[in-house]
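Q: Sequence in, structure out?
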Amino acid sequence: MKYSTVIPAILLMATTSAFSALQKTISIIPVPVSAQFTNHGPFTITAETTIGYSGKAKDKAEQLAGMLRPATGFALKVKPSLAKGQSIRLVLEETAGSIPPEGYVLSVAPDRIQITASSEAGLFSGCQSLLQLLPVEIYQKTSVKNIHWTVWAMDIRDYPRFGWRGAMLDVARYYLPKAFILKFIDTLAMHKMNSLQLHLTDDQGWRIEIKKYPKLTEVGAWRKESLVGHYRDRPHQFDGKKHGGFYTQEDIREIVAYARERHVNIVPEIEMPGHTQAAIASYPHLGNTKEKLPVHTLWGVNPNIVNANESTILFFQDVLTEVLELFPSPFIHIGGDEAPKKQWKASADAQSRIKALGLQDEHELQSYFIKRMDTFLAAKGRRLIGWDEILEGGLAPGATVMSWRGESGGIKAAQMGHDVVMAPTTYTYFDYYQSLEKDRPLAIGGFLPLEKVYGYDPVTKSLTKEQAQHILGTQGQIWTEYISTPQKAEYMGFPRLTALAEVAWTPREKKDYAGFIDRFKVHGKRFDFLGVNYHKHSLDIVNQ
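A: Exactly. Output:
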């Protein structure tokens, strides 16, 4: 809700009959499970307001003080108590079984605001809702004068529908600066999204430092030029400019720590056996031919995949060993998609390995490759996740499937008793066009308007209630073949990721697209203050 300097006085005069109208002005995204105004009065944050906390909530209390300080200019005192008086209170009750792990209860009265949760993640979610109840100027990065930081008395009870509420950011096709990744994490966190998959390796670039194999970044992080225009345009045109970059292990540690403070899990993706030409360019023995390959400069499905020799499997396990040291994520993504088998069919080594292992064909050889990674990760206490092609040739016992080629792979995996993250192109690929404007920037193709994203339901009717429990959630993809800057990544991602956040958090029966649009008219102003370059015409586009 946004209040001018005179609104608090008006609100004090509000009658019960006005509450239903006022309720429509709650512009929280994603919309809470339950939110009701109470017939009391407003709470206004002033320089004298304190933030009290109980239990182990000190870090969250100090974090909230830091969130409020830039725009208000108030250095609010944080106290280890819930003493009476005009205060904001954070109550961490780890035994509060009635509040789901990431849920919270937010109660506002004239003398206090209280956020109660059973976890730090829940407290953080409650703080994000509190920020969205304040005037939009709270997202200013510098102090704002003549604003009443007021919230009307209300009770909110809120918790997520799904445990996996994510986004995937492709930093392999185009290197994106660390500063942008940190900003992107902030933007995800304000929407209560809790997972960021970093697509760190591909044919066109290797973006993570691996100390045992330095050539992966010395060679693999750099390509001589990039495609200009669309891949389908002929002849292909290139910009003639060297492109590249990578994240040092220290960069990764900083990103992971920054995300952890905001309760966002960073899921690393190391592609194998396909989309690996940057690795082959760095270490040619990984390939199937004797040809020395460059880091790839074209997009699309690439026939050059790594071989399935034992030495190559051990190479990637060495890589994953260092990845595990950097990322505490329970899930490690190994790609597994778009791996043409033509080179394996022509390879004497691959055919000999198929025969020696008693496999039927090249698909089973890829399955063997993935199962080796599954066993390796499981021994380290981690879980393998891959794109739905990992179903081909037999699914690894502990694998989780990320279903992108529609929902059929996810449905099949769930029916087999495997966990699934729904990420179908038809609803979650944000490299698709989002409008039909003539001057729209270049994209890979397709058309995915905001309304269609909002209408998505990750749980299909073909699943039984038990099978549906395997749907962990959903994730939006920002592939960057045609996204070379942070500004365009935001333009393509938002507000579609905002819509997906509500899909992932809010109960299905509480979703309302018209209400979402009304709330986003306020939310867009928050983006303006945060400097998020969202697509401003999305609100005018209907599903087609």
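Confidence is low (pLDDT under 50) at residues 1-24.
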